[in-house]
Amino acid sequence: MTVHVSPEAHPALVLNADFRPLSYYALSVWSWQDAIKAVFLDRVNIVSTYDVSVHSSRFAMRLPSVVSLKTYVKPARNPAFTRFNVFLRDRFSCQYCGERDDLTFDHLVPRCKGGTTTWENVLTACSPCNLRKGSKTPREAGMAPMQLPYRPSVHDLHNNGRMFPPNYLHRSWLDYLYWDTELEP
């Protein structure tokens, strides 16, 4: 009996030329189609493969599970200021109560009082805490953040990203990642 496994269930972990993941959160993965295209364009080396192949009338290829770029991509020195990166810096939890649901931005010094939208003035807050604080400073609202906002380094975000492993980790990826969790076969 032949068992057909969907190629869509086989993403490829993408490593930089130094064999480090391009990012940890979101984990740097490509679809099997993008990985094969990069192989044919000679942009990556195949480091490891799945036990699943794709076939055409003249060609068969095992799907890559890990690829490394042939050209080193220099990581950004300063992470972009985005909602996602603020949440990642703050470990996806409200900096007032620790809640992990219904997260929003909060300006420590409210914009109506001259506060800016910068790393040093924005933190993660759940909607109830954000509404309770309103247009007040934390001191005026009687709310102290667990951690003051700061400008994270790429290293900070990578370390925090390791705290949130993705739902899918293949065995062939473990030599390049730093999570201890349940594995896919």
Quick description:
This protein has 185 residues and is an alpha+beta fold. The protein has helices spanning 32-40, 83-89, 127-133, 138-141, 154-161; strands at residues 12-15, 29-30, 44-55, 60-69, 103-107, 122-126. Helices cover 19% and strands 21% of the residues.
Keywords:
single chain; 185 residues; alpha+beta; four-stranded mixed sheet; two-stranded antiparallel sheet; 5 helices; 19% helix; 21% strand
Topology:
Layout lengths: L11 E4 L13 E2 L1 H9 L3 E12 L4 E10 L13 H7 L13 E5 L14 E5 H7 L4 H4 L12 H8 L24
Parallel strand pairs: 1-4
Antiparallel strand pairs: 1-2, 3-4, 5-6
Order of strands across the widest beta sheet?
Answer: 2-1-4-3
Uncertain residue ranges? 180-185
Beta strand %: 15-25%
What Rg, in angstroms, do the CA atoms define?
Answer: 21 Å
Query: Mind summarizing the main beta sheet?
Result: 4 strands, mixed
Mean pLDDT score, rounded? 88
Q: What is the number of E strands?
A: 6
Order of helix and strand elements from N to C terminus: EEHEEHEEHHH
Shape: elongated
Q: How helix-rich are the residues, as a percent range?
A: 10-25%
Count of DSSP-assigned helices: 5
Report the structural category.
alpha+beta
How far apart are the termini? 20 Å
